[in-house]
Design brief:
single chain; alpha/beta; Four Helix Bundle (Hemerythrin (Met), subunit A); Rossmann fold; 434 Repressor (Amino-terminal Domain); 3 domains; eight-stranded mixed sheet; 19 helices; 8 strands; binds guanosine-5'-diphosphate; binds magnesium ion
């Protein structure tokens, strides 16, 4: 996500860091670079113009302190301006309960997937959540929602054959009340285009359900056109917030920067992958930090923490401190990481880690690694240094793998062990997030 913008910014920063002073001339040059970068990332030209103007004024009006490099200062100004353009007071969902949420958007924007993602997110936040299939146009849509609901284990309410939308929604409203749900998410039908019929159906659903939140799902790849879509929906229905889906797929990411300023609506969540877990609260600071290459430690830590129990964390930390982190622990870690989703996606949050595609644990690989570790004796697992050529041969035979494969795996383990040691003993306050509470 945002790879293009990220790459461009980082090369721009490399140049900026070399500045000896902030002069009008080099500020203009840097602003020009920023303008081109943002435009290439598909940010709306009006927004680009405003951001550039603001950065320029601030940069010109700022006195450079001796202790700060002028380039760094400029980057900081730009950083803060971007956050200002993205940030909003509203974060996450309204606190009112029971909360009714109507999801709307064009066909294929990701509504149904997002409904399930949002439901899972609510569930993780201890809500009693349910899904309502208010998409009566396609039976397949109902099935899709039902399947997703059972996957995340939340109740789903679907219409009977031929049932009219109004009757069904009233019934669902009553039923979800009886079931004492705290959050109910209504997935609606989309159209290929924004037509009258879709808007009428939406208005009807709105008038029956009277949702406190109307969330519009927009495909990130829509780019600037997203702004027009938001405006068109806003004319007909009181949209209360936006969800940008498929944020993983859009290298440019300009939509995120444009909508807030041009429509007044905030992006509340991001969809970051096909899986139901690939969903996160939108936080301006984090996004910009990630973009600037500072590494998004906070959301990384949050993600990891949500899934790994503190007890085992403490245990692992103890082991590392006493230098007993062995292959058993490594295997447990790999399994945990596997649960967290694609490793490269996760690691992209950390500064200094290789980019996409360079770190991968697929199921097949994990199985082979499991086989290797399981073919070792407890002693070998605890102390891999004793694994010599003879032992390797035995392990390869036992696990149905090869010696080069075992070498490769041990090499990887060694580098992880070194990394962990480095991070966990760092005095700079950066503990490796896995091992921090
Ligand atoms: N990569 C990626 N794919 C997504 C995301 N959200 C939805 N999709 C995919 O987009 C397609 C359309 O999604 P769907 O929920 O059926 O859209 P709807 O027609 O608006 O209900 C499906 O193939 C989803 O798997 C996302 O955040 N990232
Ligand atoms: Mg759908």
């Amino acid at each position: 996500m945002l790879e293009l913008l990220q790459q461009k910014l980082q090369s721009l920063f490399k140049n900026l860091r070399g500045y000896g002073k902030l002069s009008e001339e080099n500020i203009s040059g840097a602003i020009r670079e920023i303008r081109l970068t943002l435009l290439a990332a598909d940010v709306h030209y009006q927004v680009v113009r405003d951001i550039c103007e603001e950065v320029k004024q601030k940069a010109l009006g700022t006195k450079v302190l001796e202790s700060i490099r002028p380039g760094d200062l400029f980057i900081k100004i730009f950083h803060d301006a971007l956050i200002e353009y993205l940030a909003s007071e509203k974060q996450g969902l309204l606190s009112e309960r029971p909360l009714r949420i109507l999801l709307c958007g064009l066909n294929g924007s990701g509504k149904t997937t997002t409904a399930a993602k949002l439901a899972l997110w609510c569930k993780k936040n201890k809500e009693r959540v349910g899904l309502v299939a208010a998409d009566l146009t396609r039976p397949a849509a109902r099935e899709q929602l039902t399947k997703l609901a059972s996957q995340i284990d939340v109740p789903v309410y679907v219409p009977e054959k031929e049932e009219k939308i109004e009757a069904f929604l009233s019934k669902a409203l009553e039923q979800t009340k009886q079931d004492r749900l705290s959050v109910v998410i209504y997935d609606t039908a989309g159209r290929l285009d924004l037509d009258e019929e879709l808007l009428k159906e939406l208005q009807l659903a709105y008038s029956v359900v009277l949702p406190q939140e109307v969330l519009l799902v927009i495909d990130s790849a829509t780019g600037q056109k997203g702004v027009d879509i938001v405006k068109a929906f806003l004319e007909k229905i009181p949209v209360s917030g936006l969800i940008l889906s498929k944020f993983d797929g859009d290298a440019r990411g300009g939509a995120a920067f444009s909508v807030k300023k041009l429509t007044g609506l905030s992006v509340l969540f991001l969809g970051t992958g096909e899986k139901v877990e690939a969903f996160e609260l939108f936080r301006a600071e984090r996004l910009v930090d990630r973009l600037f290459g500072f590494g998004d430690i906070v959301s990384f830590v949050e993600k990891v923490e949500a899934q790994i129990k503190e007890q085992s964390l403490a245990e692992i930390e103890k082991k590392i401190r006493s230098k007993q982190f062995g292959l058993d622990d490594f295997l447990v870690q790999m399994r945990m990481l596997k649960k967290l989703g694609p490793l490269d996606q996760l690691l992209s949050y950390l500064p200094g880690f290789p980019g996409k595609g360079q770190i991968e644990i697929d199921d097949k690989k994990l199985k082979r690694i499991e086989a290797i570790v399981l073919s070792m004796t407890p002693e070998e697992r605890k102390n891999p240094d004793i694994i010599n050529g003879k032992r390797k041969l035995r392990i390869a035979k036992g696990s149905g793998t090869t010696v080069p494969e075992i070498n490769e795996f041990l090499r990887r383990f060694e580098s992880v062990r070194k990394l962990i040691k480095k991070f966990s003993s760092s005095k700079e306050g950066f503990n490796f997030p896995f091992f921090k509470n």
